[in-house]
């Protein structure tokens, strides 16, 4: 291990390393990869955005021709506190970096180490973003080296059958690298070197042997893309939905765009690098276009087509019916149950949740804050049942043994949950925040983070449900926004479902268009719950459109209102939780 703040080379001084750019000037054949000097770099940071500081450790390995020729490693004083979760992730403490040099003092040596080399990193935009910001802040010109991203290269070379994802840890496990990533800069850089050498070996099977060919290979147009470019011909330059179909007319992929022709053409350019899209194009035989009045209608049609046909190459929105609800049962001593459907049975429901796992987290939060029973027995108000271990541990008020009356149970347990779902979740949130503070004071940070995550799941579901319920109870609503070329884009919504979409021509009164739309709009019969006539995703797309500053509410069958003390008032708290969660994994899953 090279000591902190050291730069070490083996048999080759950095100043004498041949420049890749000089070699390019000598030959038109390209620079053989064996002759390219690579500097494989990794940074550890405090988890914030690139602002010029915030770097806590730099590790870099210089390689050429498969051999290591130098290493650079140093801790860096980030000029900012290191959050506890970053310390847990990396093992780097404030005491470790206190005597380390500042970023401005490290940059000259690092830039010299990078001189003339190709910069390599796993998810390179992260590392280059911090280095560019540091150079800008401290007055050093960014040398703009050629950059090779091993994550992007792995996506082109490794199939889904080989690795489930392209994170550095996943690739290291697959390749059984000698060095494993540890969220320490030099270890991760050494691991990336092994990944780079493996990927260079794979490039040979694709007849790629030079640096220039590698750059083109990462963004190359496949022969399949070239052969099927004609599928993008003749499509309308208008908002709408496009459907790739195979020879049996089965939908393969559904997408939407404000310009169908422009979007479909992009599938046949170097900008399209997704492996699954290459597979889809191999099977595609034609593209069907469905023009729409405006982009909002296109988005809704896309959702409905994906839900109806479940195209194999769409990942999102395929199974809107696969949701979970957290149900507070309608009985003398209610309990929480996770169910797959909402029914008009008098029970209180919270949701919909996108997965059972999130619903379980919300239920765990409720159990943490409220004395709700967790057993599944049907309890009687006349006869008792032996209590379980939770009662002995003080985690349950033991309604099974009638230690608590139904009235007191409703007041202490069931009532606050109902209030949190339909109105004010404040008491529940305050109880959970107190629990988090207690755990943090006892330095039980992992448990505190778990409670925080569960609280966010419960609170986010309450925010979502109250927002949806306020919107979907409106029997009919009409809204409009100015069109991009004049006129108005108009939408009619009934109980959270788009039932008509249209556009009035410039110079004509939009009321005529709206009246015609009203007369022909789809009739809907609402059901129970916050999503009575459409999927939650469709209603939320409509909500997002209605909340745009340029959208005007034309008319509504009745008022649109939210609880004054509702869950939405905790938006700032949720934002802080999300920020903490993002900062806990600053490498973005590398």
UniProtKB/TrEMBL annotation:
It comes from the Bacteria. Keywords: Exonuclease, Hydrolase, Nuclease. InterPro entries: DnaQ (IPR006054), GIY-YIG_endonuc (IPR000305), GIY-YIG_endonuc_sf (IPR035901), GIY-YIG_UvrC_Cho (IPR047296), Ribonucl_H (IPR013520), RNaseH-like_sf (IPR012337), RNaseH_sf (IPR036397), UvrABC_protein_C (IPR050066). Transmembrane segments: none annotated. PROSITE patterns: GIY_YIG. GO terms for molecular function: exonuclease activity. SMART domains: EXOIII (SM00479), GIYc (SM00465). Residues 237-315 form the GIY-YIG domain. The keyword Oxidoreductase does not apply. Pfam families: GIY-YIG, RNase_T. This is DEDD exonuclease domain-containing protein. It comes from Luedemannella helvata.
